[in-house]
Amino acid sequence: MIFRRAKIVLQTEGLIALLRRVFALIAYYLLSPFFKNYGICYLFQADITDILEALEGKTEADFTPGLQNLTGRAVFSNQEADEMADAGLEFRSYNSSYRKWLDKGAAAYCIFIDKEFAHIVWTAMNEEAKKMIDPIPYKVDFANNEVCISEIWTNPKYRAKGLLTYSLFMGLQILKERDILKCKECIPVNRAVTQKAAVLFGSKIYAEGRYLRILWWKFWKEKPRLG
Known about the structure:
Helix 1 crosses helix 2 (15-31). The chain has 9 helices and 8 strands. By secondary structure, the protein is α+β, with helices and mostly antiparallel strands. The longest helix is centred in the first third of the chain and has 17 residues, at 15-31. It folds into 2 domains: 1-33, no CATH class; 34-224, Gcn5-related N-acetyltransferase (GNAT) (Aminopeptidase, 3-Layer(aba) Sandwich), CATH 3.40.630. The chain is globular, with a radius of gyration of 18 Å. The chain has helices at 2-13, 15-31, 48-54, 60-63, 78-86, 98-103, 127-133, 163-177, 192-200, and strands at residues 35-47, 70-75, 106-113, 116-124, 146-154, 182-188, 204-214, 217-224. A hairpin with a 2-residue loop joins strand 7 (204-214) and strand 8. It has an 8-stranded mixed beta sheet, sandwiched between helices.
């Protein structure tokens, strides 16, 4: 799995980018047991019913990227993922945590191009799943049909192709079918593309936050966003 991802980075971004990631990964594993600074992030919130009403008349075709042989699938369990793998749509081998996340109640929307794993967006459907995929302790009211989006990844080969916009549109339809009312997301300030996609679908910033972990001490400061 690690060598496969390294090969993708080498082929699409070059040797220098690969070396930077290797050194960053080594530093992360050396320091992460003692210190982790998640930096400043924006907290977004979306009312799914309002967004879909605003998008009335829009269809999947309006957001489908111009890529051949695109397949999008929502997956809510490892049983569904097994069925996808049998059909040649494999994604869990790219990250050893994916199987655990599905077991804990996380859901994913995956995109494949010619059956190659191209993109994934994870959604925590309960508190246990959120603790697995999103360590930042902002509040999500799962009991009242709220969920949160986290862990978005796109194969470098397919970045800037519109996959995130497409997956968010399709994900909204699926959440609505499951009676989800609101969706929250914590996005670092330096992820402009993800922020732009969230705003495109009507998400609004309701707070700014900063999370810091030093040994067993955790610090979370959240400031409401006015206006």
